[in-house]
Amino acid sequence: MRWSPEQVLALAPDAASNKAGAKLGVPGPWSGTGTSPAAGGAGPWVWGECRGSGAKPYRAVADLGGPPAFRCTCPSRKFPCKHALGLLLLWSHRDPAAGFPAAGADAAPDWVREWRDARSAAGERRAAATGENAAGKADPQAARRRAERRAKRVADGVSELEQRLADQIRTGFAATGPAGWQVWDEVAARMVDAQAPGLASRAREFAAIPGSGGDWPSRMLEEHGLLHLLARGHQAGDALPRGLAATVRARVGFTTDSAELLAGPAVRDRWLVLARQDSAEGRLTTRRTWLLGAELGRSALLLSFGAAGRSPELSLPVGRTLDAELAFHPGASPLRAVLGERHGEPGPGTVPPGVRVGEALDGYGRALAADPWLEGWPVVLAGVVPIPAPTGWQLSDADGGAALPVDPRRLGRPGLWRLAATSGGAPVTVFGSLGHRGFTPLTTWSADDAEPAQAVTL
Amino acid sequence: MNGTYGTGPGPGTAAGGEVVDGDGGGATGAGAPVGAGPVTPVDSVPGGGVPGGGALGRADTAADGGVAGEGAPGDNVPGAGVPGDSVAGKGEVPGDSVPGDWESLLSAALLGTDRRGGPGGERDAAVALLDAAAVATVRRRAGLRPAVSAEHPAPAAPDTRPPLPEPAARRLAQLLNDRAGAAGSGGGRSSAPSLAELLPQWLAAANAYGYRPPPSSLPGLLDAARARTDLRAGAVTLAGPRGRWLAGLNADWKFALRSGDHGAAGDAAQDPRAARALWEEGLFAERVALLSALRVDDPAAGLALLRSSWGQERAEDRLLFLDSLRTGLGPADEEFLEAALTDRSRNVRSTAAELLSCLPGSALSHRMAERALACVTLDRTGVGPRVVVEAPRECDAGMERDGVVVTPPSGRGQRAWWLGQLVEAAGLGGWGERLGGRSPEQIVALAVADGWRDDLHGAWSRAAVRQGDAEWARALLGPPPSVPASAAVAGDPARLLSVLPEHERAAWVTEFVAAHGLSEAFRMLGACAVPWARPLGRAVIDALDIAREAGSYPWSFSGVMGLAERCLDPSDAGRLTPFTAEPSEDGPHAAPGAAGYWTEAFRRLVTTLQLRAVMHAELAGTDLDGAVAAVRGGC
């Protein structure tokens, strides 16, 4: 199984690594390259020596079985480093017979074998440790006590938040100076203490709203209303319908254990990878991957995280399909999911079926009715024409009646021009996220009669 | 209050939309009829699903009998208070405030319910206001209606060129991506090639094949061309009709509309009536594009157009229009240019004179020749014949009219300055007869009296370049000087070389490098065609090897190294491989560590050459491994 260059580049922890890796993806600096097939639940392995400026070449090796793992003798703290990326890129470009003689597991150089052995030993230790940990956790009494303690804290936090919101409304926005809004940072900190990170991040946003332009009191009141609604929802607790209660819990900041989810029911489908988007939040990189089931037409959102300097582990190729099982987080309008078992390698993708502008808004309205705190809802628009205009972009139905504005916060993005270029004034299919401020395009598909359609990341 | 994207007073409005209906005014927001627009998402909100008015409201109802927005207690079944319902006109309004009336909620929130009171009646006013705000917010968002579409852009013209092969398309993305980061990294001495430097030749090669790029690469391509004028022609050609279409939508890329093959102006150029209309009504940039397009195919038509409005054009426009006549310049333009010699604007006058002097048969060229020849005589009285120069004593009105600049730059004598301009603009054809029926080569060999040689030869060199006269250029260059001290070619050898045919250029520079090494060869190498001819490449490699042996540091040659990366034939990489081995000791005369630096420099050179080989193979659609093996041949 050989990866595509796009798959390799998706591993890059940042744009600089991407570029540096791409430069090393040429035969010049490499020697002693090789690959060996998967064996014993790990691999395939790819290795090579890269001549740098020093006297000794750097030795890079990658294990592509399961989540990819890398090792390189260079001092870089990026992970994977540019050598590992360059190596994989070279390998992805070329015929194995030319530069990558496939060696049997024992024909690999010693340094590769050593790493491989160390790795499998570490893997066993880790597995053992996880087993112990699981055993330690298994005390149901302790778990219940922990849950009760947390529920109490959150409930106290929610009451306090309600009080703060009402106080703010009694005082009035106009009488609150800049220092007054900073108080919400403290409230956010109190919510963190109360183990309600969802409430905390919403409260933290408040301090930034007065600086966000002309209509800020309106936005402030909206956010007050929605946070109030969330607090009341949490207080209502079991009186809510099950799905809605789960949505409220998730929005407040209770997490659901992935392993627990995967133990429950899963949805198997051929999932088309619609888009992937990385965003840096502090030292953490959050990667959102949107999927669409080819058979069932269901949307899913996978989140994965990478700590500073590392790319998030999950790297699915945009535009291709993946036969896999997903387990959905509970909720009134389930979207977030975790990836379970995969069946085989990603296959070729297609252009997803889409809807017109009006239907897209219908869908968004329904989703919002289920989850009022929704920031954006995934939508595939079909047959829309992107209209660039200095005052704001639109995506318009091909017959010219209805249009969606592009979210004004996205107007500076170069991806919009790639969208316009791909369209050339003709209708295209666009995937994106629809929110109350407009549409954020994420992927489009080239509409070229001469070639198979290709996904274009925006 | 079913808002449209972009309605003014609603909460969280987005910019850029148009107001569709009139419900933004406030007072009767909740009563606005649903269904006025093309789609009515509010109707489609499933009953009981909205927590704002429904499920959450139910919990609340139990507590204190009614949440704002749910309608009057008792009137609505708890849990059925979907905002869509009340919008549709079923719900009655609790208290004295309409829950959907965002403006009154907002003003209460701004002033504070302590002062203003809220919508809650006897309930806690602040909590009631928050309830109402939540309902109104969710209702508005769930009920958003489409904006009215702006006018669609006219579709781009089809591009019939074959698409780039996939690896080449990826390479383009990589080259453009590297450009974006190049400014920050400073391009230090890394062993990886500088991709941005390879973009010009990649574009030239892709255009030679006549490929069309993937549309999604166009923004990056146009951005690159915007930042670097040397990329523009190639980038605009590659971008093709889709690129010009895109440039028409983004002011940053306007340059693409006036260079290359012209788009709308090019179309208009095919049709005299359209051309006339565009010329009379178009914007300045469009008119320049039209004129440039016409000059390529039909110079006379372009001239006629320019003539038709010449008198009314502003001086700075006249200058640029006149400059477009450079394309397709011929005897037919002479009369017009001659008239422009009396133009009101000095810049227009001097451009006209310069253009006329490029026409060897023009009257101006003859007049200048007459003046120039009068200054130069052949003196046969001495041992051998020699040239005697008597520079003009004054710059008369006629000379000035023909474009001679009166005041010399500081540090130059007036008379020599005038002489230089006369000779430079004089047709070269008259000198043979004047100087005893000699060929250019014989003339250049003649001795010149009183130290005028450099002035005279310099002016002839400029004339040869301007008139594109290869015979004179060859004579002035002479054979490459064999002794370093005599390396004084009059004028600028690099420019003279540019007049010669490719193979002659390469041969001349090859000899020059073999004799003098690289230190003065930079600009001459730059004048040679890419890729360098085999013998030239060998000469450069040998010269680099000699410099290495001599022990100087490689960065004394970084300019030539950079050129070599871009210009050496990739198949010469094999000859370089011996130099990339681990360095031995520094030679006896070497600067400390020089050998190691040379190894590094040569490795970079080889890597770049391999990359170029791969790039060309990708464009040709041939087997990559074959290309790399060919480059490695010699290892």
Describe this structure in words.
The complex is a heterodimer of chains A (458) and B (635). Chain A is built from 13 helices and 15 strands. By secondary structure, chain A is of the alpha+beta class. Chain A folds into four domains: 5-133, no CATH class; 141-252, no CATH class; 258-342, OB fold (Dihydrolipoamide Acetyltransferase, E2P) (Beta Barrel), CATH 2.40.50; 357-457. The longest helix of chain A is centred in the middle third of the chain and has 32 residues, at 140-171. Chain A starts with a helix and ends with a strand. The mean pLDDT of chain A is 85. Chain B has four domains: 23-142, no CATH class; 166-261; 374-384 and 402-500, no CATH class; 501-632. Helix content of chain B is 54%, strand content 2%. Chain B contains 33 helices and four strands. Chain B has helices at residues 41-44, 55-64, 83-87, 102-111, 113-116, 125-142, 166-185, 199-209, 218-227, 229-247, 255-258, 263-269, 272-281, 284-297, 299-309, 315-324, 334-340, 346-357, 363-375, 397-401, 414-425, 431-434, 440-445, 453-467, 470-477, 493-499, 502-516, 522-526, 534-550, 558-567, 573-576, 594-620, 624-632, and strands at residues 147-148, 376-379, 386-389, 447-448. Classes of the chains: A alpha+beta (458), B mainly alpha (635).
Percent of residues in helices of chain A comes to 25-40%
The count of helical stretches of chain B stands at 33
Number of domains of chain B: 4
Q: How many β-strand stretches of chain A?
A: 15
Question: What is the subunit organization of this protein?
Answer: heterodimer
Succession of helices and strands of chain A: HHEEEEHHHHHHHHHEEEEEHEEEHEEE
Which runs of chain B of at least 5 residues are low in confidence (pLDDT < 50)?
Answer: 6-99, 181-189
- Give the strand content of chain B: under 5%
Mean of the pLDDT scores of chain B?
75
Class per helix and strand makeup of chain B: mainly alpha
Main β-sheet description of chain B: 3 strands, mixed
| CA-based gyration radius of chain A | 25 Å
What is the terminal separation of chain A in angstroms? 28 Å
How much of the sequence lies in strands of chain A comes to 15-25%
| Span between termini of chain B | 77 Å
The side-by-side strand order for the widest beta sheet of chain A comes to 12-11-10-13-14-15
Rg of Cα set of chain B: 38 Å
Pfam family, one (chain B): DUF5691
InterPro entries (chain B): DUF5691
Biased composition (Low complexity) (chain B): 35-45
Biased composition (Gly residues) (chain B): 1-15, 22-34, 46-56
